[in-house]
Design a protein that fits this description.
Layout (H helix, E strand, L loop, with lengths): L4 E2 L11 H16 L6 E8 L4 H16 L4 E7 L6 E8 L2 H13 L1 H11 L7 E6 L7
Antiparallel strand pairs: 1-5, 2-4, 2-5, 3-4
Helix pairs in contact: 2-4, 3-4
């Protein structure tokens, strides 16, 4: 997704068989070996229409599906100066994981249903910004 774009049809956001579990473990191991510069972070800025508790309950329920492919971490932060303002943070281990997930968001009916439900909690369209980690190391 391009920077500062409102979520449209391509927003982010079952039991696994043995081969899927192995694939996930392999992806996690590869991600751990990769450089931090490969990390893609998606920030979804929004304002809650329902309530903080409702949005948090939804995300607790949706998180396993969001993170199911592996290499994806979901977080939520609330603004200190406005209790209705939040940022949902999706961290992807690398560009391949991000790109694959964008396809899933566009095509997977379960993901599309979750995202439609997620939008019911929002007071207007979110602002979405994607960043790639710089790889800057502490020295």
């Amino acid at each position: 997704m391009a920077s500062d774009q409102a979520l449209g049809p391509t927003e982010p956001h079952t039991g696994a068989g043995a081969s899927e579990r192995t694939g996930r473990a392999s992806r996690s191991a590869r991600a751990a070996r990769r450089h931090d510069g490969d990390v893609i972070t998606l920030y979804l800025h929004g304002r809650v229409r329902t309530s903080r508790a409702d949005l948090e309950a939804f995300l607790v329920r949706a998180r396993p599906t969001y993170e199911a492919p592996g290499g994806i971490r979901t977080r939520l932060q609330w603004a200190l100066d406005d209790p209705a303002v939040f940022v949902e943070i999706m961290e992807y281990a690398d560009r391949d994981t991000y790109d694959t997930d964008q396809v899933r968001v566009e095509q997977d009916p379960a993901m599309r249903a979750l995202l439609a439900e997620w939008r019911t909690h929002l007071d207007g369209p979110p602002r979405v910004v994607a960043y790639q980690e710089s790889g800057l190391v502490e020295g």
